[in-house]
Amino acid sequence: MVRIMMSTAMLHKLTDYFDGYEDEKIKCKMVEKKGIRAIFECETEMTAEQAANYCKSLFKKTPDGVALYFSIQPEGAF
Questions:
Q1: Phi and psi angles of residue 9, each rounded to the nearest 5 degrees, phi first
Q2: Which residues of the chain have pLDDT under 50?
Q3: Do the Cβ atoms of 59 and 70 come closer than 8 Å?
Q4: In sequence order, which residues have a C-beta less than 8 Å from that of residue 59 and are 6 or more positions away?
Q5: Using alpha carbons only, what angle is made at residue 48 by residues 45 and 3, rounded to the nearest 5 degrees?
Q6: What is the DSSP annotation of 13-58?
Q7: Which is deepest, 27, 40, 45, 61, by most CB within 10 Å?
Q8: Going by C-beta distance under 8 Å and a sequence separation of 6 or more, which residues neighbour residue 58?
Q9: Residue 39: other Cβ atoms inside 10 A
Q10: Which residue range(s) make up the domain with 22?
């Protein structure tokens, strides 16, 4: 299990998409939300950095991901 941090001014867009998200590579669950940041625990075989990049690529394919400025990083990256 790895932890990743997601950040954006419209945080609910990320949390609505990823809380409970599951596919063959990853299963995400939000565990903490503060201001413009949320922490997710992800069940996956990937490292935290790989999981963050994977989630970023997933969200970029959505209509909100194209227009919204957001950050997805391993927990503690900044």
A1: -65, -30
A2: none
A3: yes
A4: 14, 17, 18, 65, 70, 72
A5: 100
A6: HHHHHHTT-B-SSEEEEEEEEETTEEEEEEEESS-HHHHHHHHHHH
A7: 40
A8: 21, 65
A9: 15
A10: 2-74
CA distances from 37 to 10, 43, 72 (A): 10, 20, 10
Number of domains in the chain: 1
- Residue 76: the pLDDT is 76
Q: What tokens appear for 15 in the block?
A: 């949390």
Task: Indicate the residue type of 4.
Answer: I
The SS3 assignment for 8 reads: coil
Six token digits for residue 65: 């991901």
Tokens 């809380």: give the residue: 19
pLDDT at 78: 61
Residue length of the chain: 78
What is d(CA 20, CA 52) in angstroms, rounded to the nearest whole number?
A: 16
Question: Is the whole-model pTM more than 0.90?
Answer: yes
